């Protein structure tokens, strides 16, 4: 199977209507089995994966990130568009806005975050200077402008363990260290994609202001409702980006391991 493009759907993005001739696939990896869908869009095959499983059944701290990325690698995927609901720490990034983040700060605690655990896999220290592919981010920015969507070409994503929301004091700290957004899924997904030599970009959509900034208490339903209201915009953005991605393009992301020697 030769699937070059994949979409990983986050909260509120479970079945984007972007593909035809869709079929279900089960991919066996060393980290577990993964269920996903593969279909056609504009003459190319696209994989779609529900990050949280059917009906949001898997919380962010229990997602099998290694299996998910390994499954996409096995299919031949080279380009990943990942959607995610985020809370905003930045007043300029308002609910409904799209942000194509360029950096993250990792505050997760107990996740399996690498394919290289020593032994036969060896030890690799992957360069994460640019964790999100600049070329895919540029495509997304151009697509958003063309669709008239309010977007930001960069931003720093604070990734927390979850599944609880953050305290007001934590949000204050995250703002002090330079965070713009807070979410629960971009790490280790972005890191593993880099180790798998894939181009990876996150489509972060602000659903609410974070704790201590929002005038009301936070609820998961608020997140889901906002994502659903903007579902059509997300689908249009993803569809346009896929149309502009050359499946045969090459990128530095595809050679992330080349200069590295396993120790």
Distance between the termini: 32 Å
Structural class: alpha/beta
Percent of residues in beta strands = 25-35%
The biggest beta sheet reads: 11 strands, mixed
Into which percent range does the helicity of residues fall? 25-40%
CA-based gyration radius: 17 Å
Keywords:
263 residues, alpha/beta, eleven-stranded mixed β-sheet, globular
Report on the architecture of this protein.
This protein is α/β, with parallel strands linked by helices. It has a single domain (about 5-250), classed as 3-Layer(aba) Sandwich (Rossmann fold). The chain contains 6 helices and 11 strands. Strands 1, 2, 3, 4, 5, 6, 7, 8, 9, 10 and 11 form an 11-stranded mixed beta sheet that branches. Strand 2 and strand 3 form a beta hairpin. The chain is globular and about 50 Å long. The chain starts with a strand and ends in a 19-residue tail after the last helix. The model has no long low-confidence stretch (mean pLDDT about 90).
Summarize the structure.
The chain is of the alpha/beta class and 263 residues long. The protein has helices spanning 65-75, 134-147, 168-176, 186-195, 220-229, 231-244, and strands at 5-9, 20-29, 32-41, 44-50, 79-88, 98-99, 103-107, 151-152, 156-160, 181-183, 199-209. It is globular and about 50 Å long.
Fold topology:
Elements: E1 5-9, E2 20-29, E3 32-41, E4 44-50, H1 65-75, E5 79-88, E6 98-99, E7 103-107, H2 134-147, E8 151-152, E9 156-160, H3 168-176, E10 181-183, H4 186-195, E11 199-209, H5 220-229, H6 231-244
Parallel strand pairs: 1-4, 1-5, 5-11, 6-8, 7-9, 9-10
Antiparallel strand pairs: 2-3, 3-4, 5-10, 6-11
């Amino acid at each position: 199977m030769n699937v070059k493009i994949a979409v990983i759907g986050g909260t509120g993005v479970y079945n984007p209507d972007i593909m035809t001739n869709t079929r279900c696939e089960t991919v066996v990896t060393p980290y577990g089995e993964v269920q996903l869908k593969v279909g056609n869009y504009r003459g190319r095959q696209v994989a779609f994966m529900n990050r949280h499983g059917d009906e949001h059944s898997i919380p962010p701290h229990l997602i099998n990130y290694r299996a998910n990325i390994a499954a996409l690698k096995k299919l031949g995927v080279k380009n990943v568009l990942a959607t995610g609901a985020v809370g905003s720490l930045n007043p300029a990034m308002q609910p409904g806005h799209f942000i194509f983040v360029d950096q993250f700060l990792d505050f997760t605690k107990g996740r399996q975050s690498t394919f290289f655990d020593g032994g036969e896999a060896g030890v690799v220290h992957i360069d994460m200077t640019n964790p999100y592919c600049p070329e895919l981010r540029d495509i997304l920015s151009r697509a958003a402008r063309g669709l008239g969507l309010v977007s930001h070409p960069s931003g720093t994503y604070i990734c927390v363990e979850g599944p609880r929301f953050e305290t007001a004091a934590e949000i204050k700290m995250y703002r002090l260290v330079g965070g713009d957004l807070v979410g629960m899924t971009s790490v280790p997904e972005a890191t593993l994609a880099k180790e798998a030599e894939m181009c990876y970009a996150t489509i972060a959509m602000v659903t609410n202001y974070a704790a201590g900034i929002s005038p009301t208490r936070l609820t998961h339903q608020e997140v889901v409702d906002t994502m659903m209201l903007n579902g059509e915009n997300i689908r249009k953005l993803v569809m346009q980006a896929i149309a502009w991605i050359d499946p045969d393009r090459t990128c530095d992301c595809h050679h992330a391991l080349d200069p590295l020697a396993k120790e």
